[in-house]
Design goal:
By secondary structure, the chain is an alpha/beta fold. The chain is built from 12 helices and 19 strands. It has helices spanning about 5-20, 30-40, 55-65, 85-90, 135-145, 165-175, 205-220, 240-245, 280-290, 310-320, 355-360, 385-390, and strands at about 25, 45-50, 70-75, 95-100, 110-115, 125-130, 155-160, 180-185, 185-190, 200, 225, 250-255, 260-265, 270-275, 295-300, 325-330, 335-340, 345-350, 370. Strands 2-3-5-4 form a 4-stranded mixed beta sheet. The protein has a 4-stranded mixed beta sheet with strand order 6-7-9-8. Helix 1 runs parallel beside helix 2, helix 1 (about 5-20) runs parallel beside helix 3 (about 55-65) and helix 9 (about 280-290) packs parallel to helix 10 (about 310-320). The longest helix is centred in the first third of the chain and has 14 residues, at about 5-20. The two termini are about 20 Å apart. About 50% of the residues are buried.
Amino acid sequence: MPASKSESNRALIIRALAGGGTLHNLSDANDTQLMQRLLQQPAATVVDAEDAGTVMRFLTAYLAMTGRQIELTGTARMKERPIRVLVDALRELGARIEYLDQEGYPPLRLLGCTPQPATEETASFTELRVRGDISSQYISALLMVGPALPHGLRIWLEGKVGSRPYIRMTQALMQHFGAQCRDLGEVLEARPQAYQPTDYTIEGDWSAASYWYAAVALAPAGSHLTLPTLRRYSWQGDQAIAGIMAQLGVHTEYLADEQIRLSKTTPAKEVTQDFTDCPDLAQTVAVVAAALGITVIMTGLESLRIKETDRIAALQIELAKFGGFLVDEGEGHFRAGSEDFRVAGQQVATYHDHRMAMAFAPLALLGPLAIEEPRVVRKSYPQFWRELEKVGFVTDPAPAPVF
């Protein structure tokens, strides 16, 4: 299993704020390697976050609140992904930030920061009000810089909060590095104090594990698989895949030494699932449900529109090639399933989205298919195709990899 990209990128920012510490089992995902390189370029005047959402958002907060004067840019798609909520919050904290092109979107010019100094008369927290229904990466970015502010930081979350497990992961890693923070429901607090250099070992990636759950769900009866480096008591929200896939015919057994054993069971006929806290699992679940002819009612998909691509539109187009569907039933409800699902050499477009490639790849258990732009998996799981080959998937690299 690859190491968790989510843990790795948070740990890199916090370690930089702490001024030291050793990170073991750091992810080899492109997003993490990019984050590590950019943090090691203190003299850079332009930083390119490429297509990495966590890199763009975490670095915006880190560079702004550490006073760097720098330009922060990304790919064409990154320049279409909104960042106004984060920029507005950082400006309230004293950061000077300009938009270089379209208002509310990267690229940005960071011009330093002048936070309000701490005094005896103003010893309470610096307070922000932030929408809870935005990407949790904005909230995590703000939380991580909170201990470095003269007053610390108190964030009031307004409305429904999405991907809360990722916020809890951020706070747990902050505490590991010596910060004092609290989750009071609609209020998040980070007290003013210095992080402490600390060592940490990154866990295996539950998001990546979801594709192996899909493989077992689509495999013949009696199939099983053992995955390493996954903790039963994980900070990762995507551990929810164990409970979701239990309904789609995969049983999870937790073994010693941070291993899990997956085995195929009988799935339910209809499933209802809220993806508010685990939106990165939605593509995997929609594909498995369609392939098995199971109806899944899906909610909490709001953030999928602003990911690497519009993942809802991408799923609708690609599932239709196989006889599957993802229907918008209104009021935030979607219905995934199929009428006559067949895998017979179709070509799957990936839309520059690593999760599109990996969500559809397990369909090879039902027949041949082609995956366009297979290198997109480097974003989070560079060894994905090699790992599939190890368990018997056959690949043909020309003209496009076929699985």
